[in-house]
Amino acid sequence: MFAVKQNDLGEPVSYSCSGDGTGGKTFAAFSEMADFFYANQKEESAGEAAANERMKSLQARLASQEKTLVSLGKERREAKEAGDAVYAAFSEIDALLAFVRQMKKDGKSESEINAALASKKAKIKGAEVEIDA
After folding, report:
1. Domain residue limits, the chain
2. What is the pLDDT of residues 109-119, one digit of tens each?
3. Reported pTM
């Protein structure tokens, strides 16, 4: 016995080749069941089509947000590592900054400051102090 299960609207939703007919229509032959199932398939309605398009749009947005989340997670880890490195060497960095401030206060040029910082593996570049690790 072959059976086609139907939804509340009488539309076929699934079929079974060994069904007992519970919740659907029964057929003696497979070809009768297949004919009924495929002949009564409803085409996608405008509402369903719009919902499917909206779902595709939302899935694309979700994929984009997941990529962004991964990227932001990577940036966060890199920023944390940089912050941890600064914190670990804070006293040396603070001493270098104080040294640079004092040299600027004394009227030294950027090249003179860089020459003094070379032994400390650091240099100034504009308003930034670069330290070689």
Report:
1. 2-39, 44-86, 89-133
2. 888 888 888 87
3. 0.44
